[in-house]
Amino acid sequence: MSELFDAVDALVASRAPLPPAEERKRLRQAHGLTLDEVAAALKVRRATVSGWESVKKPVEPRGPEREAYARLLNKLAELYPVPAATPAAAPATHTSRPGPAEQALSAGPAPDAAAMTAPEKTQTAPAPAPATPVEQTAPRPARTVKSSATSHRPGTRKAAPAGTPAGDTDPRFENGPLAVVDVDADGQVLAHCTGGLVLDVPAKSIPALVDWTLTEAKLGQPRLSGPGKDADPLLVLTSAALERYGLPAALTDEERLAGRIPEDHKVIRQLARADWKLTKRGFGPWARIYRPAQGSDRNCVQLCIPSWHALDSRHWRQAAELPPAELARILGVYASRVMTPRGSTAVTGLELMTALHPPTRASEPDRAGKRHSEHNPGSLGKDPVDCAPCEAPDGHPLLADLPRFHVRGPGEKLFEEAYDWARPLTDAECMCRNLVGIDVNMAFAAGANGLVVGLGEPTHVKAPVFDPKLPGSWLVDLSHVDLSRVKVGKDGWAHLDASLLPSPFTPKGERPQGPAWYATPTVAYAVEMGYEVRPIEAYVRHDNGRYLDGWYNRLRDAYLATMADLGVHADMAPADFLAAMDGYQERDPQLAIVVSAIKATVKGGLGKLRERPRGEGWRPGRPWRALSRPTWRPDIRAAVISRTRVNLHRKIVKHAAFTGQYPVAILSDCVVYAADGTSPLDFLPYRDGKPLPGGFKLGVNPGLVKHEGTQSVLWGEEVRERFNAPELNLARYIKDGIVTDIDNGE
Q1: Pairing relation of β-strands 453-454 and 373-375?
Q2: Which ranges in 487-582 belong to alpha helices (H)?
Q3: What is the C-alpha to C-alpha distance for residues 741 and 460, in angstroms, rounded to an integer?
Q4: What is the mean pLDDT of residues 643-648?
Q5: What gap in Å lies between CA 180 and CA 170, rounded to an integer?
Q6: How far apart are CA 631 and CA 611, in angstroms?
Q7: Which residue has the higher pLDDT, 35 or 532?
Q8: What are phi and psi of 622, to 5 degrees?
Q9: Which pLDDT score is estimated for 57?
Q10: CB distance 338 to 270 below 8 Å
Q11: Whose CA is closest to 194, among 230, 227, 219?
Q12: pLDDT by residue (tens digit) across 64-91?
């Protein structure tokens, strides 16, 4: 009888309606599953699962796959029900009319009338005003009314300008992910939250401030992935707040080098007496204060102290000097679009990878109904793995047996780095008027998109057959690849002037002289250009996946949304795009800071994958702290850089084959060409508004290019003559033309 029931259940499931494509995708992403993982579980192709989630052309699963897919969706729907729609905001009341800055910065629904105190019900708020740009010298938003020891939301919430995040829909975090804590002229401590919200802070000490944050402030951010953890609330302490809570306004030179205040500081003693703990990095610019988690409840608050140089001016520019409300806006936009900052942009970039692919997840209930922690497929796991010897940087424990002053060559060391190449101008190029630089948007993020990287430890193989789909490091001789004749497209061959092109296999553009170690994308490009490769040996990773896809998608969306707020949209016509990019940072300098931080998050996060020793008494051959992380993966960093460099070289070859124009200099993602005009449109081969297929295309999307800068040819020749450097990399200075010192390649 049970077999008959099973057959009936299967028959019903084979015809049962499935949720729409958007909901299928939402459920998958809510649990942190990739298309590859679902496809592997259902034993179908990745493209099949993608078709099931396609909004434009949805494909309905059939046969046994439909039954299994329906079962998966049903289980996910139980874990992640559709969020309830937010009710329309009721007319709000408050004690005083909001100032201009509050009207410009505030956003989101008003609080329920029942939650207001009696004095707050005395006056009806005016109708919401249309969004306006943030005033650079806006007064502080109207302050909220205190009610005993509890702070309340302000009585009005108006439409916010572009780029201002509203409070989170999760009631636990209704006041947003973070707050900037300051002290006003009356001595009252205020917490400036996102959306223009201001809270009164009753705490008199740092331990009390931590308690208030966790019990009353309602700060934090929901997890980015189903198996992940909610983001801890972030408090940014201004100089006035530091003084109020007994902390120094600035670190001494000794404290700055140590990265923390002394362990015997009175504030640290206060925390210890209140049973609060600090992480190993101590109380520094980015401090984490916590108590051991109880079950799923985390008791942790992070502090950011700008006057202690927590916000690096190279990436956050002048953010540390902004008024509290404006600083809250910048950090709030970044938090809502990327994640709540966990440290520097580099640290946050690395933490974002883990937040999107947590190392563990809850298992299915056992016979006793209990769940256990298990490996999360598609993640890097919770334990570090050793890299291959060729992937190890100098000083790594794997190289401890090498002679002290031994210098490894290409046959011993994987050296995948970005371009730093230049050449002298030809006579024809000297007759041109200008040098025009173009820059690839989010080049390294684009290089990570769709890239298959290793997830586990490497396997050493001898004389392997090269597989372009298998990530790893390959020892192979590519010196026979001749750039004067390369395959372009499926069947066409192009004859080029190899002396005017950099090699795609080395950062300095030099032709390889023999066997060398390369990441998979580099070797695959040699095959793509029409040449045979025969690896001598390799370290390959059979456990692999598109680990960085979600990371790329989130950073891409954050970048595009912020650029759109600044008036630069995707799919603009080339001339319109160039016009929109001209002076875009001046339209909203605060959002321009967010763009800078997003780009730094990409590069810094990838750099952290191969973090080097940072003092702490390290000696060559000994392990350093970063090696204990599962995210210390130099092979993934090498693969991304390899693919980014190859992508750029492919476009250069397409451009040369079609136009006969060759680059003069390349630095990382910037390429310089000689041209008679001053605009990229003067040498990029657009026809009827359409670019060369496979070549450079103007646009804001990652992988497309923008105008980096234009200088005269006379400027370039004068600079090279002044420094007696005929191959000085002009791409380094093309943006503003200012050369402060001779090029040292760093």
Answers
A1: unpaired
A2: 520-528, 549-565, 574-581
A3: 45
A4: 98
A5: 20
A6: 10
A7: 532
A8: -105, 150
A9: 66
A10: no
A11: 219
A12: 788 888 888 888 888 888 765 544 433 3
Question: What distances in angstroms separate CA 673 from CA 322, 579, 664, 683, 709, one per listed residue?
Answer: 39, 20, 6, 8, 11
Judge contact between 476 and 515, C-beta under 8 A. yes
CB-based contact 93:154 (threshold 8 Å): no
Both tokens of 346, joined, read 């580099």
Main-chain dihedrals φ then ψ at residue 491, nearest 5 degrees: -125, -20
Write the DSSP symbol of residue 546.
-
Residue 437 bridge partners (DSSP): 672, 709
Beta carbons within 8 Å of 152's beta carbon, 6+ residues apart: 111, 115, 116, 117, 120, 144, 145, 146, 199
Q: Which DSSP state fits 498?
A: G
Distance of CA 56 to the CA centre of its chain: 28
Of 687, 690, 644, residue with least CA distance to 668? 644
Burial of 132 (0-12, 13-18, 19+ CB in 10 A): middle
At 22 the three-state DSSP class reads helix
Pull the structure tokens for residue 445. Answer: 């993020």
Residues 6+ apart with CB under 8 A from 47: none
The residues with which 362 forms a beta bridge, in sequence order, are 373
Q: DSSP assignment, residue 494?
A: E
Type of residue numbered 232: D
pLDDT at 345: 97
Between vectors from CA 413 to CA 407 and to CA 415, what angle results, nearest 5°?
A: 110
Statement: residue 164 has pLDDT above 80? no
pLDDT at position 170 is: 83
- The pLDDT tens digits for 436-453 are 999 999 999 999 999 999
Q: Scan for tokens 């931590």, then name that residue.
A: 210
Tokens of 59: 């494909």
pTM metric for this prediction: 0.80
Strands 420-422 and 665-667 turn out to be antiparallel
| Distances in whole angstroms, Cα of residue 521 to Cα of each of 525, 527, 645, 646 | 6, 10, 9, 7
Identify the pLDDT of residue 149.
Answer: 39
- Tell me what the mean pLDDT of segment 583-591 comes to: 95
Query: 118: which 2 tokens?
Result: 């009696």
| DSSP secondary structure, 231-298, as one string | BPPEEEE-HHHHHHTT--SS--HHHHHHTS--TT-HHHHHHHHTT-EE-TT-SSSEEEEEEEEETTEE
Inter-residue contact 655 to 432 (CB < 8 Å):
no
Which of 425, 724, 735, 439 minimizes the C-alpha distance to 743?
724
Backbone angles phi, psi at 179, to 5 degrees: -150, 145
Q: What is the mean pLDDT of residues 542-565?
A: 97
Query: For residue 122, what pLDDT is reported?
Result: 33
pLDDT level of residue 744 (50, 70, 90 thresholds): very low
Cα–Cα dist 347/605, whole Å: 6
Residue 361, amino acid: R
pLDDT tens digit sequence for 690-721 = 899 999 999 999 999 999 999 999 999 999 99
Task: Give SS3 for 474.
Answer: strand
The amino acid at residue 44 is V
Question: How far apart are the C-alpha atoms of 236 and 325, rounded to whole Å?
Answer: 11
What spatial distance separates the first Cα and last Cα of the chain, rounded to whole Å? 75
Cα 440 to chain centroid distance, Å, stands at: 16
Cα–chain center distance at 568: 20
Span 354-370, pLDDT tens digits: 999 999 998 888 888 88
Is-contact 711 436, C-beta < 8 A? no
Pairwise CA distance, residues 400 & 618, whole Å = 13
CA atoms within 13 A on the CB side of 160: 22
> Which residues touch 392 (CB under 8 Å, ≥6 apart)?
398, 399, 634
Is residue 21 within 8 Å of residue 53, measured between CB atoms? yes
Of 462, 493, 461, residue with least CA distance to 657: 493
